[in-house]
Every structure is written in structure tokens, then in C-alpha cells.
Amino acid sequence: MQVTETLNDGLKRGYTITLPAAELDAKVQEKLVEAQPEVAMKGFRKGKVPLSLLKKQFGPRVLGEAMQESIDGALSNHLEESGDRPAMQPEVKMANDDWKEGDDVEVTVSYEKLPEIPEADFSDVEIERLKVVADDAAIDEALGNLAETAQNFEDKDGAAEEGDQVVIDFLGKIDGEAFEGGAAEDYPLVLGSNSFIPGFEDGLKGVKAGEEKNVEVNFPEDYQAQNLAGKSAVFECKVKAVKAPQKAEIDDELAKKFGAEDLASLKSQIAERLEAEYSGASRAVAKRKLLDILDEKVSFDLPPSLVEAEAKQIAHQLYHEEHPEDHGHDHGEIEPTDEHNKLAERRVKLGLLLAEIGQKAEIQVTDQELTQAILNQARQYRGQERQFFEFVQQNPQMRQQIQAPIFEDKVIDHILEQAKVEEKEVSKEDLQKAVEALDDEA
Known about the structure:
Blueprint: E1 2-9, E2 12-19, H1 21-35, H2 51-82, E3 91-94, E4 105-112, E5 126-131, H3 136-149, E6 152-155, E7 165-174, E8 177-190, H4 200-203, E9 212-218, E10 232-246, H5 252-257, H6 263-297, H7 304-322, H8 338-360, H9 367-378, H10 385-393, H11 396-418, E11 420-425, H12 428-441
Parallel strand pairs: 5-11
Antiparallel strand pairs: 1-2, 2-4, 3-4, 6-10, 7-8, 7-10, 9-10
Helix pairs in contact: 1-2, 3-6, 6-12, 7-8, 8-11, 9-11
Keywords: Cell cycle, Cell division, Chaperone, Cytoplasm, Isomerase, Rotamase
GO molecular function: peptidyl-prolyl cis-trans isomerase activity; protein folding chaperone; ribosome binding
Catalytic activity: [protein]-peptidylproline (omega=180) = [protein]-peptidylproline (omega=0)
């Protein structure tokens, strides 16, 4: 077996691997001898089939296996000896397309290797971490929002307005004929909730309890029920009650509605939740600042293939974000822009850097951490949690997608432990502006 270098340009590597015919034949013979004791054939006892007959019947398949194993072994040995880590799967091609049994096998191998990443000293990294205290004003605001969600409706005199609840019986008709699903009794409808088709709720503004009114509407062209889409309808409505919203009192009773023992306990829970939200937002801001510093601090060559693949993925993702109506993948090639390429370079660079730092620090994601993350995601699929969990367990790529951000966060924490982190107390508004700036810079 001979390995000859044909390309050494930056991170690009090329080699020719030559497998002499004699070595290949010996490998085939070895595999046939190994299999001989287990082979039974008509006219021969098990293990007594002549090698010549075995070669005639199984030779082509064994030859293919021997060739693949030899080439894979040669490449594996080369990577181990050279220390190269391919950025992507090496490309392996037969060099002699007219190869026939008895000829030497010659293949070409090409790949881009991962770069040597320089050591980075984080002791001089300075990060300002924003801190927001959940003050009384923020807690009161949260309490007010809870009170609104727990509001009741009470009968009122006068006409129905935006935000009022009307209790109605209704019957929908198209061309004078009632249609399926177009009727209900004692239906509580909050005007302005947009829970009915456009025009229906507006048509009930100004009605009073005891009145009857016909509301004319047009079903949207894209209405889910195709038999109604784009058609005009009349809803015969009987108004049984008009009710005004009454915000719930902020007291112990409100607290009990949300599972707390009393108002003081509810305030404490709200404070903890707010502190957790502020802390998460603050960490996101600090993480972005740290990544910006690392991007400037460390420099090394990037594998073009990884950058190109990442740029295409970014372009594809942004296309679908801008065209949510396009659910397919038949939109043709999406050419990455300079902006996409620049972002791809940053992502690849930081990804390789964080992976290297994590590997050298022996940072690992534990089975418990991964399982907890999978369970957290499974909760998004109500009623199908078990199926989702089993799907992830059987899908290595999905597990890797869930594990990657956990690993990244642990590496970030490792770096922050070595950096100089100074807390700065700011207002909730200042923190919000810092978070919004993250989206603007993304």
C-alpha cells in the first residue's frame, strides 16, 4: 500500500493511494479462508467447499469488500499518522476507471483539514454583565397583567363596545340556507378578540341586550372550509346579554387562582420568575459580547467547504423566514450574499474555536443533562411526549442538535470563569434595549 501526496495548499490536501494487485488478492484469499468453515454448498459438506469454487461464486462480492476495507484502512492510518482532522467527509474516487481484476487499485483522496487553532488566554477578557432587580414597580405591573387575564364580565346597561362581551344565539345562512357549523346558542364573544371572521365582531358593536341583528360578512378567499371560502353570509343574532370587563382584585383570592397561598406568596413567585427572565436576558447579552471579543481575539484559516455549506444554510433559512408561504424546497438554488458569507465565516470560526476549547477543557454533556433537555422539548408536543422522546433516542442527528447548544453554553461558562466579569445594575428598559440590539446585529 502506497500513499502519495498530490496537494498541499493551505488546508486542502490531496493524495493518491495505490493498492497493489497482489495485496488485494491476498486480502480476498484471507477473507475466503476465514469464511470457508461456515459455508455449505450442494455436493460438499459444510467447511469443505474448495477455495477455488468459493472464489468463483463469491469472489466479486468479497473483492469489493476487500478493496473498500483496504482503502478505508489506508486512509484511517494516514489520518492517524498525519493528525489531520477532515472538515468534511473526504472525497474518494477511483483513479483508473478502466480497472479490471489483476490490476493495481489506484484511488484519489481529497479533503480540507481542520485548522490548528491557537491557544487563547481569557484572563484579559473583560465582560460587563447587566443586572436588573425585580423592583416593586415590575412586580405590580406583572400583578396587573395577571389581574387582566383573570378578569370577569358583568352585565352592563347600554351598547356593546370594544372589549365588552356579548352573549348571543346566532344562525348563519348563505343564500337563505343555513350551513353546517354556522349556529350556536349562549355563545360568549369578546368584541375585539378577532375570534370570528372579519366583520362579524364589528357588526355587533353598539347592540344592546334583548336586540336582534343580522350581521352580513364575507368569508375570506383562503377560509379553511372550502365550501364557505369567498362566499357572503348573513348571521341572524339574538343578543342575550352585554357585559363589561371587570379586572380582578389584586388580593389573596387572585393569588389562589394562580396556585399561590396568598398575595405575598404570589409576589414572591413573580419576583423569582422576573429575576430568572432578567438573568437569562443578561446572559444572552454577555454571551454575545464574549463571542464578539473571541471573534476579534483569535484568528486562523477556515475550511472553505464549511464556510460555503454554512452560508448556503443561512441563505436557505432566511429565504424561508422571508417567504413563510413557501413550504417546499423547489425554489431552486439560493445564492448566498456577501452578508451571508460574512456571517458564515463568523459562525464557523466561533464553532471551531468553542469546540476546541471544550475538548481541551474536557467539557462534556452528561446523559442527565441531555435527557432533561429532551424532556423539555418533548413538553411542546402535548399528548405525543413519549413518541418524541423515543424518536430522539433513535435519531443520533437529532440528539446532536439538542446536545450542541448545551455544550456551547458549558464552554461559554468555562470561559467566563476565567474572564473578568463585572456586574452593572441597570433598569429593565436598558436591558430590553440591549436584548433588542442583539436582534439588530444578528
